[in-house]
Specification:
The structure holds two protein chains of two kinds.
Chain A: H1 7-10, H2 27-56, H3 60-63, H4 70-95, H5 120-147, H6 156-188, H7 194-223
Chain B: H1 2-25, H2 31-57, H3 86-103, H4 105-123
Helix pairs in contact in B: 1-2, 3-4
Catalytic activity (chain B): 4 Fe(II)-[cytochrome c] + O2 + 8 H(+)(in) = 4 Fe(III)-[cytochrome c] + 2 H2O + 4 H(+)(out)
Subcellular location (chain B): Cell membrane
Enzyme class (chain B): translocase
């Protein structure tokens, strides 16, 4: 069997052909975008379902959305949007092939060990924590809504609420698993090179996409109701 | 890459026009078509904008040159697995998970464990052994 692609692809910044892949689009990245565009159509189906139930049972929307805790979900939304910023900082680190912090990661208030020295691993861990807080918040929100009598089977509103936000929550959970694998890879790699940077970047595409979908869902479900 | 991004971006005004026309014809009473057509415009702008963004960051490819030669396309294509059994392991465990949804949820738990093993095996395949990097 022939070895994986060629040496240049797996070499880090010190490799002889660092920009060899720059003369053509990265297949993994283009493929991820095409797949995410199909994910957009998956969520289009969920939006269509939401608006259809709303059109045929408008009276439910007069009472049921009052059970939602708007300040709580707004805070959780801000947390998720900020996690995209942390994720992008991790991408910038991955693009300079820096897997981990240059100094001690836990002293961000100092100049020499500050955020500027953070590598992909630290930023992605922060993104993971923010995403995990989002999921915990969603579980907490579901528990409160169920105690107020809004369940998957209580009404058409309950069904579409849990299906749309639940499928989004499953996507966020999948993203959290992906972050763990990417962080794990940064420990396993002898040298953090193009392959590691590419998988970190496409995971960030997925994360940004899921974040944008949540902004759409939040606007539809919590703002315009 | 102008042609590729043009094909996808070109779809966006088209699908927007379809969405608006569909809404007007149905009196905006039928939300499925409206939601899906507007998001189809989103699908095309997403791919098109990404290709346009990528085109600005790379040099012109041989495909972009009317006089390009096939040999000019030689070089790095990306990173590929020489062979791998892990996708098969992942698909079998996914099948067990879905069979569990029909048979009983105890089977989902078994499938999920196998899925976790297969996923980790696949992701870390080239970090040990002969092809480790």
């Amino acid at each position: 069997m022939t070895p994986v692609a060629s040496v240049a692809a797996v070499d880090g910044p010190a490799g002889p052909n660092v920009h060899a892949t720059l003369n053509r689009p990265n297949m993994v990245q283009v493929g991820t975008i095409v797949w995410l565009s199909s994910e957009l159509m998956f969520f289009a189906g969920l939006f269509a379902m939401y608006f259809t139930i709303r059109a045929v049972q408008p009276d439910l929307w007069a009472t049921e959305p009052l059970k939602l805790d708007i300040p709580f979900s707004t805070a959780n939304t801000i947390n998720l949007v900020l996690s995209s910023v942390w994720c992008q900082m991790g991408v910038f680190a991955a693009e300079r092939f820096q897997p981990s912090a240059l100094g001690t990661w836990w002293a961000p208030w100092t100049r020499e060990h500050g955020f500027r020295n953070w590598g992909m691993r630290e930023w992605y861990l922060l993104t993971y924590v923010a995403g995990a807080i989002f999921i915990c918040g969603q579980v907490f929100e579901y528990a409160n809504l169920i105690s107020e009598g809004l369940t998957l089977s209580s009404s058409g509103y309950g069904s579409v609420f849990y299906l749309t936000t639940g499928f989004h929550g499953l996507h966020v959970t999948g993203g959290l698993i992906a972050f763990l694998l990417i962080i794990g890879r940064s420990f396993a790699a002898k040298r953090f090179g193009h392959a590691e940077a590419t998988s970190a970047i496409v995971t960030s595409y997925y994360w940004h996409f899921v974040d944008v979908v949540w902004i759409g869902l939040f606007f539809v479900i919590y703002v315009i109701k | 890459m102008k042609i590729e991004s043009g094909i996808f971006i070109g779809g966006t005004p088209l699908f927007l026009a379809f969405a608006i026309a569909y809404g007007l014809v149905t009196g905006w009473d039928e939300p499925v078509g409206v939601a899906c057509l507007f998001l189809t415009a989103g699908l095309s702008i997403m791919i098109g904008a990404y290709l346009a963004f990528t085109a600005r960051h790379i040099d012109a490819r041989p495909e972009d040159n009317a006089y390009g030669e096939i040999a000019e396309g030689a070089g790095e294509l990306g990173e590929f697995a020489p062979h791998s059994w892990w996708p098969l392991a992942i698909s079998f465990s996914a099948a067990i998970v879905f069979a569990g949804a029909a048979i009983g949820f105890w089977l989902v738990a078994i499938g999920a464990v196998l899925m976790g093993l297969a996923l980790v095996g696949w992701v870390f395949e080239f970090y040990r052994g002969e092809h480790a990097h």
